[in-house]
């Protein structure tokens, strides 16, 4: 719950990951904003969900239209999440919804906050039929796969299918030379893929590139190469900094 900080995600500064994410996916059209992207996250909190809704909230359409468009963006919490946000429509809601950043520990509120949490090892068969299956569907359709804030745990990676022709980029913030090499070797040996850290063969530089700078690097690369914003992207998210 402490990861849910409304003040932090409302800050409109270029050195924040949500500001750079908006720069990457923003569109004059709300319908285009909601197309060709999927977000897969291993986080329980809804910071990413709320950031995306805040972006939609800036469009001058009705509240109902905002909620309808938000519901079309695939946001998959592979380990479950802390309840649902008030503007999230989902038939699985059993205890209503829980406001973002509201730290309420009453019995009713705790029930709302924990009903969607899952322990991976206990629910692997269920995952294969639900969230994991959906996650691999969107990965298979993506032209660009972006890992943001990952430690690249091989158990988590082994459950995902990278058999398509997508380009893969990732953060390596805080990862030393050994860890960076381990991740690169994993993708090459297990999936015959290269992962781009934007390191220019300098591991000491890349370990200091946080999520915001990483997204800016992607934006700059797309601008230089004249790549379209609507290229199908799959974001694998594990970042709240």
Characterization of the model:
It is a single chain. The chain has 241 residues and is α/β, with parallel strands linked by helices. The protein contains twelve helices and six strands. The protein has a six-stranded parallel beta sheet with strand order 2-1-6-3-4-5, with helices on both faces. It is globular. The mean pLDDT is 79.
Computed Rg: 18 Å
Report the strand count.
6
For the sheet with most strands, the description reads: 6 strands, parallel
The coarse overall form would be: globular
The SSE string, one letter per element, is HHHEHHEHHHEHEHEHHE
Counting H and I runs of at least 4 residues, what is the number of helices?
12
Please bin the fraction of helical residues: 40-55%
Please give a handful of descriptors for the protein shown:
241 residues; alpha/beta; 6 strands
Task: Give the helix/strand layout.
Blueprint: H1 6-10, H2 17-25, H3 30-33, E1 37-41, H4 47-57, H5 63-70, E2 75-77, H6 107-114, H7 124-129, H8 131-141, E3 144-148, H9 154-158, E4 167-170, H10 177-191, E5 195-196, H11 203-206, H12 211-224, E6 233-237
Parallel strand pairs: 1-2, 1-6, 3-4, 3-6, 4-5
Concise summary:
The chain is α/β, with parallel strands linked by helices.
């Amino acid at each position: 719950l402490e990861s849910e900080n409304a003040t932090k995600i409302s800050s409109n500064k270029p050195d924040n990951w949500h500001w750079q994410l908006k720069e990457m996916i923003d569109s004059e059209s709300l319908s285009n904003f909601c197309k060709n992207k999927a977000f897969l996250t291993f986080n329980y909190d809804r910071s990413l969900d709320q950031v995306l809704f805040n972006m939609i909230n800036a469009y001058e359409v009705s509240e109902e239209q905002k909620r309808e468009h938000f519901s079309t963006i695939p946001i998959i919490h592979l380990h479950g999440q802390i309840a649902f946000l008030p503007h999230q429509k989902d038939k699985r809601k059993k205890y209503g919804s829980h406001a973002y950043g509201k730290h309420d520990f009453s019995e009713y509120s705790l029930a709302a906050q924990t009903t969607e949490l899952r322990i991976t090892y206990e629910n692997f068969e269920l995952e294969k039929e639900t969230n994991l299956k959906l996650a691999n569907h969107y990965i298979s359709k993506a032209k660009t796969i972006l890992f943001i804030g990952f430690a690249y745990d091989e158990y988590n990676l082994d459950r995902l299918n990278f058999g398509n022709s997508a380009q893969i980029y990732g953060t390596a913030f805080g990862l030393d030379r050994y860890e960076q090499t381990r991740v690169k070797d994993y993708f090459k040996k297990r999936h015959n893929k290269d992962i781009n850290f934007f390191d220019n063969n300098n591991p000491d530089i890349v370990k200091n590139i946080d999520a915001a700078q990483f997204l800016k690097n992607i934006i700059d690369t797309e601008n230089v190469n004249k790549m379209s914003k609507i290229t199908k992207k799959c974001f694998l998210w594990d970042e709240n900094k």
